[in-house]
Design brief:
Helix content is 20%, strand content 21%. The chain contains 15 helices and 35 strands. Helix 9 packs across helix 10, helix 9 packs antiparallel against helix 13 and helix 13 runs parallel beside helix 14. Residues 181-577 form the Glycosyl hydrolase family 13 catalytic domain. Belongs to the glycosyl hydrolase 13 family.
Length: 712
Amino acid sequence: MTLVTPRHLQAGSPYPLGAHFDGLGINFAVFSGNATKIELCIFDATGRREVERLTLPECTDEVWHGYLPDTSPGLVYGYRAYGPYEPQKGHRFNPNKLLLDPYARQLVGQVRWTDALFGYRMHSAKGDLSFDRRDSAAAMPKAVVNEDMPVGKKFPRPRVPWSKTVIYEAHVRGISMMRDGVMPHERGTFAALGHPDFIAHLQKLGVTTVELMPVHAFLQENFLLQRDLRNYWGYSTLGFFAPEPNYLSTGDLNELRMAVRHFHAAGIEVILDVVYNHTCSGSELGPTLSMRGLDNANYYRLLPGEERYYINDTGCGNTVNMSHPRVIQLVLDSLRYWAEAFDIDGFRFDLCTTLGREPTGFDPGSGFFDALMQDPVLSQLKLIAEPWDIGPGGYQLGNHPPRFAEWNDKFRDAVRHFWAGGEGLRGEFAGRMLGSSDLFDHHHRKPWSSVNFIASHDGFTLRDLVSYETKHNEANGENGNDGHNENYSANWGVEGPTDDPEILQLRATVQRSMLTCVFLGQGTPMLLAGDEFHRTQRGNNNAYCQDNEISWVNWKDAATQEGQALISYVARLTAIRRDFPVLQGDRFLHGNTEIEPGLKDVAWFDERATPISVEDWQNPVARALTLQCAGAGNVDAAGNEAGGPDIVLMFFNAGHEPIEFSFPRAEDAHYLLIDSNISDGAVSREACTTASVEVAAHSVQVFANRPCREQS
């Protein structure tokens, strides 16, 4: 349908990209190197009716642009792009498909699944080589023009040093859906995120940094909706600038800004988990929603010589082309927008290896990494890599640029396996407890580069690790073909829930032992939301589509006696970490530095206080280890030198029977800081007067040559 258009766009400017209000009108700018024409489509406030269609009058440096005077924020719009429809050459232009602006900062409406969303005729014998002429506008969300964040007083960022960072991974929706004291309409939104009770809980735990699972607008995939499921995790990005509309209780972007400021006022940072490696459009058989219709050949990596098909290094059907300067600009503009408009403190990059892959393979000096490292805003924030994808050479743990920390799955697997009874793991376990220097001790990197975790959103929760030996993903409807098969978990006698008090006590002890490794090992500790009070997903280790009580955090568990005890245990661990600088990992410990004569920075012993020989490290059934770390920094409450180094001892007994451990330095004072065989870890502040102690099966005892000042 041709619309009557009483207005014409002025030339406007190719920069900045997106739609921006200058006080008198709105400038529109969108990149497409292969389009022959782009139209701006204006809709009514609901996004249901197209009221005006205007051709962008100018194209400068492959950016199409136009200026609409006498127009205010709140305008609802989309694009239509003209050009060749030649899938074999990588071009998929179809002006019948309304396209979302990649720079859209707010959305109205949502994707409504219909065959009209696809650029080709569904069920055609020609497949995606066919051409569909139906208008998709009625089924598409639209962009809303909003005002830039006003320049004014900036709230100070906490800027927590990496060495003091404690991360808490949480889901915006899941963290508040089952929380009392939150208004029903605010549950699952940014409005509930900064609730004072939640912040008080994080402060009690000693958390410094909240890492939020994806908050960018994302797609609800049709195959999930057909099974009455939903994309819960959000790793299917629809727009890189717009917050997920369902996370806004009123539609006001200030909800997120206020939540971040509440965290900052409490000294807590906010990091976003971001997905730039692919978009929600899937493979060549997916819908045409945005970048595919704007310039498929430039926005995505295509198979050389077979440009009809996408390179699928992500496993999600497509891979964003991070070798193109305009695509790099898109990602950096998005990151900078979140950092400046919402005061975000850092980013965790999903499948970060993909972002660093050039046509020749992964490159820590790739264009994206180079641009990120020199950016005056982004280079000063916390950057975390998920260091793998499914592409060739996709596992790059330890190989990202020095500015990055990296999720360390080798720490996760080694600690899980060690406590689950795996054999021959002494050396592997020891290396992971000391910051994985084999992976990170290069290019002047620090132990904090290793993000140490036992559980994350992807996999079993901590409680499920000690309750299930196999995954139970029946609710996902994929016949058990999804989720990891090797979890290094153990059920300790019964699969799933049990009332057996001995099994419950053993499971709780193993949980505390693994948490002790996370928080007192060298590196940056990360805790999955709810693991501090025994959260379960009922054995589901891939709850990506469970937007229900399987995934939501049940705060009633936190109020139980067992939940309160584990919360106190985690709080003790973070207090110990804060009080002993040697545990904060400002340098790698190799055992070749003497803190004082006869005292090395790190040493390993067996339970008899005998240094472990090469042969002992290879003993496949040995289940006991003593770790001694020493460092300067024993200061009093006023910060004055109190004399002598800090010495921290950890006695690990992963065996099935109690073991007597001897102190390597019998002449020192020994104060028990925490015992994982005790429900809340509480111990006496009196010095131990014996030369040895008994450590219960499957547990850890931690000693130091002074008490922890922060513990009562």
